[in-house]
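In these records, each integer encodes one residue's backbone shape. Here is one protein:

___
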Amino acid sequence: MKKEDLIAMGLTEDQAKKVMDSLDGNFVTKARFNEVNEENKTLKQSVADRDKPLEDLKKSSGDNAELKKQIETLQQQNADQKKAHDAEMAQLKLDNAIDAALTAAGAKNIKAVRAMIDTSKMKLGEDGTVEGLSDAIKAVQKSDSYMFNTVQQKQQTFKGFQPGASGEVKPGTEVDTSKMTYSELAAYMAANPDAKID
């Protein structure tokens, strides 16, 4: 506001000068006041608007820490479960390999023979064999042979007269020994010692 504006409002020049002197240039028009006031309100609102996301961020960062902790806990549980599962699968493979080896060795009762073998230090190799198992099986076969099926010997055949068997060769039942392999011929000769080979 200027001195002329005051004079235009009806003040005398002397009065207008006194008013202007008392203001010392600190007079603010209503428009400027409204402008500054509106700017102040806008700044306060923008600060509030800025502070709200910051508070939300603080809350969510706390939640994120909690979520991160939960995720880490779940990841650790998953890792522990995977480790336990892998150990379980390795033990299962080892047990199956031991059972297969005992079956192949002719164990009559796998559980009983297995109890006689210390399997705690045995490990399954990449090729599927169990280190030290064959030596352990041989040791049990030697000390407790009754736990294993022995290789059945061939049924013993008697030479000479056999009750119920006819000594006559029927016509058309002659065997052509020239077409036999050596093992077939040896078996035939053992069963028929009186046979003639041409």
Summary: The chain has two domains: 3-76, 81-147. The mean pLDDT is 76. Helices lie at 3-8, 13-23, 30-104, 110-115, 133-143, 182-191. The longest helix spans residues 30-104.
